[in-house]
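Mods, move this if it's the wrong board.
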Amino acid sequence: METEEKIKEMVKQKYSEIALQNKETNQSSCCGSGSCSTEIYNIMSDDYTQMEGYDANADLGLGCGLPTQFAKIKKGDFIVDLGSGAGNDCFIARAETGETGKVIGIDFTPAMIEKARVNADKLGYNNVEFRQGDIEKMPLTANVADVVVSNCVLNLVPNKKAVFKEIIRVLKPGGHFSISDIVLTGSLPAKIKSAAEMYAGCVASAIDKNEYLSYIKETGFVNIILQKEKPIIVPDDILKNYLTEEETAVYKRNPTVIFSITIYAEKPENCCTPNSGCC
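Not the wrong board. Structure tokens:
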């Protein structure tokens, strides 16, 4: 079993490489993890191109949902995007909050931060900021954000409980999040779970859906809503890199176990729930 620090370093290295690739290269991979597919498709993400604020230069094809579409962003909101990549979700959130709002993107990878800042400068946005940091310990003070969004990032983080505690810390009382992520509803073959490339491909460090939802509830969030859910079908030419033909046949006979979900939850107005750390 990889240690948390080794997993983080693996993710940082892979996403540093991805920052230098174009969208087409990323889309021919397992959620942008490398050239592990011979076909051009993206098995995870939804189509952003018609959303206001979309910027093709900032779209690396790494998401697994459209959390900003479900985030109930209002004009003037302070928004934080976790794992902001090249900035696409931040720019779409900026279109929602307007010039009177504020958007901060946090990313673990210096190359992504640099790319996002270049994109923001080209667009002339003075209310969008990018900060390098670990979302398990965000470079933000408490009770500042109206909305937190994230797109296919928490599944890469070893300590998901720590992230949810950080989310509830930085949200204002009554604030909320909308997060798209990868979860499981059964067991993955050990060869897929242990494959290094899949850590950066959104699958290997995904956890059980019920466990994921329990972390949110235990942290102290309320009004938890599953906004969207879709199955993720891993194509044969990806499976063959990890499984034998016989193992692939067994895997495909079982119900789909990998899902993309978009989940919403609120920080209570009076946030003093047990063990939440948000008082």
